[in-house]
Amino acid sequence: MINILVIVSLVIFYTLFLGRTLLLTRSGVKVFVLGGASNKIDNLLENSTLPFLILWAFLIVLMVFNIEIPIMSVLIIKNSFFSYIGVILCYIGLAIFLYALISFGNSWRVGIDNNNQGELVTTGIFKYSRNPIFLFMDIYFIGITIAFPTLIFIFMTIIFVFGSHKQILNEEKHLAEIYNEDYLNYKKQTRRYL
């Protein structure tokens, strides 16, 4: 049952992600604005996000269908209670992601868009979190890792959480430059994560 719930969550995530991307692209919005950072490390971070997500999904599929590779074969803890907790976290994360996509409207981008500045989004889920997409991703990665506590998932989750935090800090600088006092006031009222 855990495996089915995990695969369904993965399908929901990619359906939302690709569906929203296609809708915005069809309306003339450039969704992927990667590689425009000011230094090489930040560019590497931005450009590795999509391949990282594809690798993550691939490893989940391998795990769900019991296709063993040595790095994934050792579960740290095998406990169905923890697996269900992990799956619940995945679905909580997906609900946050859906609400964030709705709240974002046409402003959603993957990366920092220096060319098309829309309005600062502070409504919907953005009243509670300045970074609900990253919050979703962190919760989702942690949920998968709790469901399948292997060394590779633990390692990848740690890398992703630290990498996404670095990206958040970059976006905060960018938003402060663009929206000035409006962003600083928003930052005082709404926490970075929750």
Quick rundown:
This protein has helices at 2-26, 40-64, 80-104, 132-147, 151-189; strands spanning 32-33, 110-111. By secondary structure, the chain is mainly α.
Structure description:
By secondary structure, this protein is mainly α. The protein has 5 helices and 2 strands. Helix 1 crosses helix 2 and helix 2 crosses helix 5.
Descriptive labels:
two-stranded parallel ribbon, single chain, mainly alpha
Give the helix/strand layout.
Blueprint: H1 2-26, E1 32-33, H2 40-64, H3 80-104, E2 110-111, H4 132-147, H5 151-189
Helix pairs in contact: 1-2, 1-3, 2-5, 3-4, 4-5
Q: How far apart are the termini?
A: 31 Å
Q: Please give the count of helices.
A: 5
Helix fraction?
A: 55-70%
Q: Give the strand order, joined by hyphens, for the main sheet.
A: 1-2
